[in-house]
UniProtKB/TrEMBL annotation, chain A:
This is Ferrous iron transport protein B. It comes from Butyricicoccus pullicaecorum 1.2. Belongs to the TRAFAC class TrmE-Era-EngA-EngB-Septin-like GTPase superfamily. FeoB GTPase (TC 9.A.8) family. The keyword DNA repair does not apply. Probable transporter of a GTP-driven Fe(2+) uptake system.
TrEMBL record, chain B:
It comes from Butyricicoccus pullicaecorum 1.2. Signal peptide: none annotated. It comes from the Bacteria. Gene3D superfamilies: 2.30.30.90. This is Ferrous iron transporter FeoA-like domain-containing protein.
Amino acid sequence: MHTLAIIGNPNSGKTTLFNRLTGSNQHVGNWPGVTVDRKTGHINYQGKRTDVVDLPGIYSLSPYTQEEIIAREFVLSDELDGILNIVDATNLERNLYLTMQLIGLGLPMVIALNFIDDVESQDIHIDCNKLRERLGVPVYPISARRGLGMDALLEAVTGEMQPPTHQPAYLHGVGAAIRRGAEILEQTNIRACSRPFYAAKLLEDDPQIVSHVQLSLEQRQEMDDLADALSAHEIGHDHEMMFADAVYDYIEGVVRDSVRKPAHPKLTPTERIDKVVINKWLAVPIFIAIMALMFWTTFGPVGEWLKGIFETLIQGKLSPWLESALLAAGASDWVIGLVCDGIIGGVGGVVSFLPQIVLLFFFLSMLEDTGYLARIAFIMDTLLRRIGLSGKSFVPMLMGFGCTTPAVMAARTMENEKDRRMTIMLTPFMSCGAKLPVYSLIAAAIFGANAGLVIISLYVFGILMSIFAGFVLKKTVFRDVSSGFVLELPPYRLPTFKGTVRGMWDKARDFITKAGTVIFLMSIVIWVLQNFTPTFAVAASPETSILGVFGRFIAPIFAPLGFGEWQASVSLLTGLVAKEAVVSTMSVLYGVSASADLSAILSGVFSPVAAYAFLVFILLYMPCMSAFATIKRELGGWRWALGAAAFQTCLAWLTAFVVYHVGMLLF
Amino acid sequence: MKKTLAGLKPGQSGVVDGLTAAGAVKRHFLDMGITKGVRITVERIAPFGDPIAVRLRGYSLSLRRDEAAKIELEG
């Protein structure tokens, strides 16, 4: 048995190949300490088992992005026995850059030349024997999408893999310097085969490798002399550039020898599509149309219909069935209450969002797999950059209007850590679907005919606050981190049915797991708090329950905002379970009955200014626990998640305070 | 003042002579194949004026104008 890593550029079809090779034998976990997925699986081929690790898609083994560092640490560890390098044949030059670095590692290796069908349809011919000869590594042409060439590849990766037959002879003295550097490293404990890689990185002055490798003073001096001798070749060039130049020069030679292109290459399908899709005038209308379709389907008729089915199943069928089953089993009232109201109410309420979440992720994976996501970032970058975000923040922010939970998950598509964190922190300011019932109820009760205007103003207010909060975060927490926007616009590709379904299933499973653990526990906790007094007797009325007592205790916090009644405080607390719960809690606590409906009661309790301050607070304060749990996972820890929640809640308090007092002066 | 990639209009191309970027941005440029001697063509400008889309080594890349200004061209 041995362990194989699949490594390749983003958009090289890595995931498709991984799925092809491992089938359903997969496990998704996390790399220690980071939020990058670690996918592992195994191949069963002719009775032999080979473990496969899917490394993150990277362009190089540079130590800058999280993905690069993970991939590099893994390939330099002893866990690995061989490398399967997947190369996009339609983009050979740039893909081979990573290949050259991998060859420097000297580990057993094979190359899978993917999208060979696309290359052939462009009348380009790649001579795989020539490539193998020049690179010293076996090359297998495949189409992971169509399953072409898989047998030969499987045979190769499950058999005895060989290290590269030779190290490339880079020009400009770089190749010679690497060879000499590798000799200097002979007296260290670095694996013999990987010395060329380490030598190159030491000569390039790669900060991590320099601090990682223990060299004697003498050896370090020799390395420095070697580097200085290199610089003498070309003045004004630093080592990093020289190495990259030498590698790309070498690759150009390899490509010249092994690729035959037609004299007059026709425009690729991607170039033709881009002429329309990111055209100066058409780009924005097309973009808006695609977004509208996505949201209309998810949150409009189709999504609502599916959600309705789920709700009927859970509340109309499952809940009564469980209740009668528990009654028949002789369960006491409080057990029935806990199960049917607490657990089903909490978990069920969240699970009913599942169809919409799956739909959203269906669209999102389509956007990503087709290559359009990169174009959205390209179109929107300038606008979002002004508030310290990047073009890639757009989709998550937009999804935030639907539901914060999938929106936060969607931020995974951003490779810049600072942008991703900031997007996650700002997304909750987009009014999610669950806040709408709260807005409409209170606005209708207090503002009557102007209710519509009030609701729209809240949506706009949220957007303005995210812009403002973006500025604040840019100047404080995320200061000084310059994030570039060097982004590949990958070729358009048709997503595979299997890949899309698998992606949707993964998301759904993620979500169900969370509903079954975190939300399950929190639902129980809230139910207990609502139904027991501080001395753990059954509460006669909500007022005497732990939540009621606590509500009274915290009510003074909200007094300066104009809504210091304990009922309002408690409803804000239950809003943490799900925002729509604010409405149901208020109905219970204000003792809504047939003779007095909630609207009438509310208009007696809230002044218009206080009501608006209350709505603003609901708009801005920390998101519901489902979103919070997701934020915690995506930000990678309690410290960040609690920090974000504190930031949002403080901002909500301050804003509501300003709104209330300015409003009191004006009206 | 050296000519940079930021000064090109859609359809125009130039040959890279050097980079004035540093740190992660420079590394990223090099990894993406923006090395001395490579020909880069500006394909188009985004609808709101920034970033730009360029083509090199047979693929398309998007970068912001201020990043493009760090790529010096020959001539």
